[in-house]
Design goal:
Length: 432
């Protein structure tokens, strides 16, 4: 008798659970558990007799329903929470759950363990080019600064999952520090600075569930960069003044960006975080024209008004591709600019890279600028090919065709795009 009632209860619970999405959808209950992250939900397909009998409508509607059923976000978060809490797993690609629930992107672990090491020769070659670029820019009144941003793997090696082991290789960061020093290239090593101050700092320098340095660190980094520029250019430029520091049980800005992408039901327990409240002193100050070429580690500074308040017409060349703030209003790309004229009116170029991105430092800036200064004809070719590559990437129909070519040729999409762009360039110039 007991087993009979138990079966009835379990069956009722099961039927209720699988019926909830339909009930929520019929009642049009508002989704209060919205998911975070970058994704484009499938649109609702329009019904037509032709699409129905050609079997086009059904799979499109199935995809739409799977992404829009009642309170889908609630069930997704419950599912993710169970995997996280019971099995220590993440469904976010490239994310590892470390000890004590510290979150890492795999690339940061690969960087600190030397798994992504590109070799001494490659780094030496890049730094030799940077030396040529530095000397050439200096002749035009422009300075070069390389900023080595932080890496979560190097800052929290004690929390890296045991399944990862050092490769025995040196790290890109270690060799870059050595080569930049030997070539006399100005650089600031914030990765080592954060690690040096890890125990003595009164506040957290790297968040537990974020991938970028903490907001507190960011403000201090921005202040240090400001002081370096001031000394290097011998100008009295705007200052950053901290008015107060708010310590709170919670996070602001990007201090939990990896956690947010997990879309869990409950927040991960974190230590108290510090948030400086600051202002810029700009009166009677000189603002230099600075171009910042960086990965995502500059976004927090840019969003906090660093480029607007410290620099004159400050531009952020994101991954040496998109130009901000212009790109917010309309598509604006580095490839569409005359690099030589842009640098000619610049007082300083700041190249910022986190540890995982050191394996392709500059994202084309080093190659393009070196070619420009060493061989203008070669630079013109490189710049035009890069423009054509961007045109291919920004044209969905064109990109689709090149994607098919990549599969046929057995090469990466980037390689196929480059081949097409080079073919177009040769046809333009008659070099067939």
């Amino acid at each position: 008798m007991f087993n009979k009632y138990l079966h009835i209860i379990l069956l009722s619970l099961f039927l209720s659970a699988i019926s909830l999405p339909l009930v929520f959808n019929i009642l049009n209950i508002k989704d209060v558990f919205k998911l975070k992250g970058a994704y484009v939900p499938a649109p609702k397909p329009e019904f037509s007799i032709g699409d129905y009998f050609s079997d086009k409508f059904q799979p499109e509607y199935t995809k739409y329903w799977n992404e829009h059923f009642g309170e889908r976000s609630f069930f997704v978060r419950i599912h993710n929470q169970l995997l996280f809490s019971l099995f220590g797993k993440s469904l976010v690609y490239g994310v590892d759950i470390g000890k004590d629930n510290y979150l890492f992107e795999t690339a940061y672990i690969n960087a600190v363990y030397g798994i992504d090491f590109i070799g001494n020769d490659s780094i030496k070659k890049n730094c030799d080019k940077l030396r040529v670029i530095k000397d050439s820019l200096s002749k035009h009144g422009c300075e070069l600064l390389v900023v080595l941003a932080a890496g979560k793997g190097s800052f929290y090696p004690e929390y890296i999952p045991d399944k990862y082991q050092p490769s025995g290789n040196p790290t890109n960061h270690e060799v870059y520090v050595k080569q930049l020093s030997q070539n006399g290239i100005d650089f600031i090593d914030f990765s080592s600075w954060l690690l040096k101050n890890k125990k003595s700092s009164p506040y957290i320098l790297y968040p537990k569930t974020g991938i970028h340095w903490s907001y507190y660190s960011m403000v201090n980094v921005a202040d240090s960069i400001t002081k370096f520029i001031e000394n290097k250019l011998n100008r009295d430029i705007p200052d950053i003044v901290i008015d107060s520091i708010v310590v709170k049980d919670g996070v602001e800005d990007t201090d939990a960006d990896i956690e947010e992408a997990q879309n869990l039901f409950f927040d991960i327990k974190k230590p108290l975080m510090a948030y400086p409240r600051f202002h810029y002193v700009t009166e009677n100050k000189t603002r230099p024209r600075v171009v910042v070429i960086s990965d995502s580690f500059y976004w927090a500074m840019f969003s906090a008004g660093f480029s607007d308040n410290v620099f004159s017409d400050g531009k952020f060349w994101y991954y040496f591709k998109e130009i901000y703030p212009d790109h917010f209003n309309s598509p604006t790309f580095v490839s569409d600019k005359d690099l030589k004229s842009e640098l000619a009116k610049t007082d300083m170029v700041i190249l910022i890279s986190n540890e995982p991105n050191l394996n392709h430092l500059g994202w084309g800036f080093i190659e393009d600028t070196y070619a420009m200064f060493s061989d203008n004809s070669d630079f013109s070719k490189t710049q035009r090919i890069r423009q054509l590559e961007e045109q291919i990437k920004n044209n969905p129909i064109w990109l689709s065709e090149v994607t098919k070519k990549a599969k046929d040729w057995g090469v990466s999409l980037d390689e196929a795009i480059h081949r097409d762009a080079e073919w177009l360039y040769n046809n333009e110039t008659g070099n067939k």
